[in-house]
Design goal:
It is a single chain. Helix 1 packs parallel to helix 3. The protein is built from 8 helices and 13 strands. The chain is α/β, with parallel strands linked by helices. The strands form 3 sheets. It has a 5-stranded mixed beta sheet with strand order 3-2-1-4-8, with helices on both faces. It has a 5-stranded mixed beta sheet with strand order 11-10-9-12-13, covered by helices on one side. It folds into 2 domains: 188 residues, Nucleotidyltransferase, domain 5, CATH 3.30.420; 104 residues, ATPase, nucleotide binding domain (Nucleotidyltransferase, domain 5, 2-Layer Sandwich), CATH 3.30.420.40. It is 27% helix and 30% strand. About 2% of the residues have low confidence. Strand 2 and strand 3 form a beta hairpin. The protein starts with 15 loop residues before the first strand and ends with a helix.
Amino acid sequence: MLAKLFKRKVKATSRQMSIVIQPTSVTVAVKDGEDKFIKQLPCQNKDYVSALQKIAEEFEFEDTQCQIVLTYGLYQTAQVDKPNVPENEWAQALMWSAKDLFTITPANQLLEFYQHTSNNANNNKLNVVACDKNLLQPIIDCLIELEVDVKAISIEDIVLTQLVKDENANILVFHAPGTQLLLAIMKNGELCFSRHINGYDNLHQLSEIDFEAGKLNNLSLEIQRSIDYAIGQLKLERITRIIVSVQNFDSQQIVDTLQEMFDVNVTLLVSEAEDEFSRFPINIAALDELKLELSAP
């Protein structure tokens, strides 16, 4: 599994780093007490190692604890029935039963799994995540050479739950430049459901004129389908809010347009970061998840 790629002995440190890998860019964010650093670089032909090495010339990576996040397009997912073996044997069973569900060559597959939070007692499904070892191994090797302590590798669907800390069920409408629009149902900081929506890759570039012309109509249908799924299949009592996180100058107009279509309250996600970090919410969420990882017993 993924952890085998980066287990090693390291020095204790308070410096924490999140690295977000997108198909065409790398973003590195670091917190060291009150000091902060963030940098995004474009990547040609998925040459993430060169980008990381270049960023490391500006900021010393040594003795930093790190969380890596893969965004949509760099991993594949499939939903399967739970293996009919004890829970501690699921990982081994999935390596054989799920390998043919992905386009990645089986020999290069790195698999992990997670289960959606649900009130449905009959939920018997697992979500299997596959990524390509040929993509990840050079990144891990580079970070080890830079003396970075890689604590975990995750995906944006899971990491973004850190942005909505509410005991009630909410839908997050999330889009950042370079990513595909994500709809995610979250409750108590846990993921209940997520799906990526085609057709809104340029949402950050749309204007009030586009919204008035009905560009959000299809999105509203997808949100309604997600609400219906949450109540009908996940057995959630209700959806409390639709929370929008979109890097668009007219983001309030997105909220206002969606509000006209729903009785549920529609709000903008309020970032706790007031500086340059606020432009990189996936990095913020990853740093929060890393903090949880480090505090776990």
